[in-house]
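From: lab user (bench 3)
To: helpdesk
Subject: output format question, protein + adenosine-5'-triphosphate

Hello, I'm new to running complex predictions and I'm not sure whether the block I got back is the full result or only part of it. Here's what I submitted:
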Amino acid sequence: MRSLYLFIALRKTGNICPCRLENPAETPPAGGRPLADWYTLSAEEVRRELGTGPAGLSPGEADERLQRYGKNVLREEARETRLQVFLRQFKSVLIVILVIAAAISFLVGEPVDAAAILIIVVLNALLGFSQEWQAGEAIEALKKMLVQRAVVVRGGERQEIDAAGLVPGDLVALEMGERVPADLFIVEATSLEVDEAPLTGESSPVDKAPDSLPAGTTLAERSNMAFAGTTVVNGRGRGVVVATGMTTEFGMIAGLSQRVEDEATPLARQMDRLGRDLGLIALGIAVLAVAVGLLQQRELLEMFLVGVSLAVAVIPEGLPAVVTLTLAIGIKNMMRRNCLIRHLPASETLGAVSVICTDKTGTLTRNEMAVVRVKTPGAEVAVTGTGYAPDGEFLVGENPIDPLADPGLQQFLHTVLLCNHATLKLEEGGWRILGTPTEGALVVAAAKAGLSREDAPEAAKEFSFNSTRKRMTIVYPGEGDFVAHVKGAPEVLLARSSRLLRGDSVVPLTDDLRDALLAEIAGYASGGLRVLGAAYRPLPEGLEWTEETVEEDLIFLGFAGIVDPPRPEAAEAIRLCRSAGIDVIMITGDNPLTAYAIARDLGLSSEGALTGADLEALTDDELASRLRTTKVLSRVTAEHKLRVIDILARERAVIAMTGDGVNDAPALKKASIGIAMGIKGTDVAKESSDMVLVDDNFASIVAGVEEGRREYDNIARFTRYLLSSNIGELVAIVGALLLGLPLILIPVQILWINLVTDGLTALALGLEPAEQDVMQRRPRDPGESILTRNAYLVVLILGVWLGLLTIYVFSGLYQVDLDRARTMAFTGLIIFELYNVLNFRSFRFPLHRIGFFSNPALIFAILGSLALQALVVYVPILQTFLGTAPLTPADWGLLALLGLPVLIAGEVYKAVMLRATVR
Ligand code: ATP
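Helpdesk reply: Thanks, we reran it on our side. This is the complete output you should expect:
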């Protein structure tokens, strides 16, 4: 099973920066200063040393430095060379048996047999090599797609680049959820916290700020540095790159940390077991057969050949290579469908998924948001305009108003703009948002009123947004005191507000007012609008700024209703899931009414919506039973996701769970298959996932499931086909022996069948298109074996039939001409198997239903096998090697006729079974 071993050994991808450093030894520490003491400098000194400023490096200078310092990448474990992969093909017990057989044949004066066996061994190695190499290429391509991106300021412009292009002196922006792309000296930080566990082992996040530190400060205490390979878990900041690639702290220990565990896919393990079992069976049968032969007083050499033939017949040599290639092709197909597989087992798990827990925003919806209504305690306006263009009006009824003339509305817009990181940009293609769509929609609304953040002072403090807090705060210096601007889920803000702004006066927030506002919020949400509230608070002097002290006693300003239309393709994908027996559960941080309205629009039927608070009030059993009918979970946190996974797992569900934020990492790891969002997902989420959804689109997950099911079906198809062929060979050899006939097939002939003709057709079976009803069946049981009891039975019946037919062909001729009899048996078996392969195209549908020509590769494989067999039968040199004699056209015709019932029986059986199930 050598090819499988390799496939198992293909590396996990993307865990470490996908990196390669051209010449690490020649890369000097940036700026020529010993690496260790950057932290002793001030931000100004670091900038001066590295010749950079607030606008970053100029693009020209960055290019020049890239030449000088090399790429910002780690040295990767070298990929095996072609020769190494080729030579590894010979490390198998079977090959050893064959080489011994060749040696013995040579010693007893059969050099042609010996050479033939060796040639086939080499051919086999070449086949294995080419499959493995192609699989390796697929994985390499995958790695390339998982490159890390970094936001850098060059020539005053923010731009996103491949992190490999970073050079010392670059000014890099850091945001929550991102992996730090190089060693940085922090020059700006707002509540910046970094998880340095991969580097220092310290599990709690470390605060970062741009102060200089005394010499001798340990790595773990260098709070003015952010190191490559660590992740930002809170806040944001900027840093100047001081070291890249192998000269980073992480690079220096990379040799240690790059060793990634090998992992086997469950299917690979199953195949491995199958291979071992068959090996043992082969040995047993061979020993037994030889014993019987010796009792029959046959020649020792002949019995030796029988033993080798049997061993060769039982082991499906072509299987590992075909599995390897099919999985590799599957990964490529999934990539084409926007599912980037990071861990190999995921490609298999995807096909067995029985529950998909999906985010709403951006996955089921388009994530193209626009504020359409704003409600303040004193006014309600509609906002017009489409897309991100800042053109639109504020209407009361039909009448346009100036929003800045209403103090409440003006303060609302002002706050949502200041408590915001998105920026609006006019580019060639039109207006674009840099940042999240939710924040972008608010910036656009403010821009429609003529507001921008251009003259805003620098923020003094930030309490970042995350889906547990459901709010964020940025503190700015105000006219007198500092002012906290807060935005978030409106009910969360209302719970923290004691006053509200009505017109230009601040009034107490009574219970009645709060209830009235909550009712209005519910009205917005029921219409499918995403609702975002805003509040502010001038901070009392001397207040110590913590989340708790700042985000309380707020002045509520109102809320915005944001549209986020459902993705049109999501409704169809949900329908497909229903027919495929896959449960879809929407798990969102959003409001239950909004979530429910979107679910309804998408045809996701759910008995109401549960909130995070509801979840907490339910026992595990209660929750398990509610989950059978309630498919919308809202206002949930990452911890709730973990609990949902636990509960679903009790019912043996195979759970796919999507996620994007830092907090989602544990759930992504825990789910049977964690799916990170490719666009809005953070580096942390991606690194914890098994699969990255390139376009964030729910429909792509479903496409991936379909591909996974097809892939599994195909592996089942050719595994069963190859086994039935092997049983056919076994029956022919043992049957002939028991009947006292001469050796029916010589080892090279069996090798030829197993490796060449079967190999071709099995590969082509791996390309079989999905069955028509692939998404109308229930998900398979993940523990199910590829060889179910029924499958064994079919494989056995067909195999025995093929074997007996071969004996029949041989028995009528061997007394006249043994070579010709063998050639008939040899060619007959191949022809019978070519009929048989058509049986295995589908286990349920007859050929006329799946279309005779719907798998062109198989037609080519069948014709190719026949052509190759004709060469073997007629070309003299091949005749010598494979012990064949020429056949007449009538012989071919007879064999074709004899094999036909194999196919007809299969077709009739399927037609009858199909009719029975339809009824
Ligand atoms: P999903 O979980 O389906 O992706 P979501 O984006 O609504 O949906 P979260 O990102 O967890 O989920 O957001 C939860 C809530 O927090 C939102 O409903 C909204 O009220 C609020 N919110 C979202 N983004 C921000 C933000 N940038 N600032 C403040 N509050 C936000």
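A quick orientation on your result: Residues 359-361, 436, 438-439, 465, 467, 470-472, 487-489, 532, 588-591 surround adenosine-5'-triphosphate (CB under 6 Å). Let us know if anything else is unclear.
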